[in-house]
Write a structure and sequence with these properties.
By secondary structure, this protein is an alpha/beta fold. The chain is built from twelve helices and ten strands. It has a four-stranded parallel beta sheet, sandwiched between helices. Strands 5-6 form a two-stranded antiparallel sheet. Helix 1 packs across helix 3, helix 7 packs antiparallel against helix 8 and helix 8 runs parallel beside helix 12. The structure holds zinc ion. The site of zinc ion has 7 residues, from loops.
Length: 319
């Protein structure tokens, strides 16, 4: 944790102590049961929640903390969110600093004997982890062949915390993994139809690193891997040059990130004599109106193929 945050930690210590006291008082027997007696698993993102919900089925309650349009890099928990976390049997978050402003709360929750699991950190290792400027890139879910690894970890967590039949839990986990493997194969096949020089994804922030590595797509984000840092903003001119040089037909918005920077890029390319259009809105850090994690991947696949593939490859005509 960066040193400069220690003041904030001290300031919030008193608040957390009182929240903790209330939470502990309301958990008379053990922290693993809710008031209604059912086990609750709290997940931060929908990408985690979808996997957990399907594997846990009806054996427990699953709460997803972030709404469908929430930017996880910027999310700050309210007191209600902290109580929700405190009531959980286990909290499953992504990790790799995706949920930067949740760190202090997660520390407090762990101190209150709630199990806290960083799902992405537990599911990938070594060279599989992409780095950006020395920090790990948290957007692991963008590669479904990696995200399907979370199913084993989640099955273990669910089996540990609920009374469900272990073989049924494992069966549901295998079903999710199989579906993600099929989706991965579909992404690979459809994206390979885009000519290599046009297989460039230019978006608002660097959320597509894992996606790009898996499907051989060059990825350029205007902001860095976190939307929390304006310092990561790249010179628009550099990216305009890339768009013009490659004659890219389209660049993309992201549903949780401001459109301002992408719009500036389009204007720059137009001014340089190359008409580039907005290829659509991609969902990177939250599913938005695509509702689910898999819906989000499918939406992105359709949007990218339509915008970048030539008509013969099944994409929209680029006029
Ligand atoms: Zn992101």
């Amino acid at each position: 944790m960066p040193r400069r945050r220690s003041n904030a930690l001290l300031r919030s210590a008193a608040l957390f102590t009182s929240v903790l006291a209330v939470a502990l008082a309301s958990c008379s027997v053990e922290a693993t049961t809710t008031v209604a007696g059912r086990t609750t698993i709290v997940c931060t993102t929908a990408m985690i929640g979808d996997v957990v919900e399907e594997i846990a089925a009806d054996d427990c309650d699953v709460v997803v903390l972030f709404g469908p349009d929430v930017d996880p890099h910027l999310f700050r928990p309210t007191r209600d969110d902290v109580s929700t976390l405190m009531r959980a049997a286990v909290v499953i978050y992504n990790g790799f600093h995706l949920e930067g402003h949740l760190t202090e709360s997660l520390v407090r929750v762990a101190e209150a004997d709630v199990e806290v699991v960083a799902l992405a950190e537990r599911s990938v290792e070594g060279d599989e982890i992409l780095e950006d400027g020395g920090a790990p890139d948290p957007h692991v879910w963008m590669d479904p062949s990696l995200w399907l690894r979370t199913t084993d970890v989640v099955a273990g967590i669910v089996a540990e915390h609920v009374d469900g039949d272990r073989s049924a839990i494992d069966e549901r986990a295998a079903r999710v993994a199989e579906r993600l493997a099929l989706l991965d194969a579909e992404c690979a096949e459809r994206l390979s139809a885009i000519p290599a020089e046009r297989r460039v994804l230019l978006t608002a922030h660097d959320a597509f690193g894992y996606f790009g590595r898996r499907y051989d797509v060059t990825v350029e984000g205007i902001q860095g891997v976190s939307t929390a840092s304006e310092a990561g903003l790249r010179a628009i001119q550099e990216l305009v040059a890339l768009v013009v040089e490659r004659r890219l037909p389209a660049v993309f918005f992201e549903s949780t990130v401001s459109e301002r920077n992408v719009a500036a890029l389009v204007e720059g390319a137009n001014a340089a004599g190359h008409a580039v259009r907005i290829g659509g809105v991609l969902h990177a850090d939250a599913p938005g109106d695509a509702v689910t994690y898999e819906g989000m991947l499918r939406h992105n696949l359709e949007t990218i193929v339509s915008a970048l593939a030539p008509p013969s490859a099944g994409g929209e005509a680029s006029r």
